[in-house]
Amino acid sequence: MGRHKSSGEAKEQTVALVSLLPGKFSDAHFHKEREESYFFLTGHGIAEVASVSIEIKAGDLIFTSPGEMHRFINTGSVDLKYLVFTAPAWIPEDSHS
Q1: DSSP 94
Q2: Which of 72, 76, 88, 92 has its CA 20 to 30 A from that of 16?
Q3: How many domains does the chain have?
């Protein structure tokens, strides 16, 4: 999402669209330096953030700080779709299991 490489990429943030199929989950991970906000568009499920489980649904917003282990579980019958806003911009080296 965002601008195409040909017109320049954002340097301070990343936006991604994620879709988890029913019964699926994201890998548990944390970021040493990045914070993330997750805005849920469709479906429902469970957010596990820093050993706390929170029920989530479309319209909810979850925030994670650097160092907080997190993952998302789709407990519904439709795709759990959400936008991920990462700042500073996401790099693979900052994601840890």
Answers
A1: G
A2: 76
A3: 1
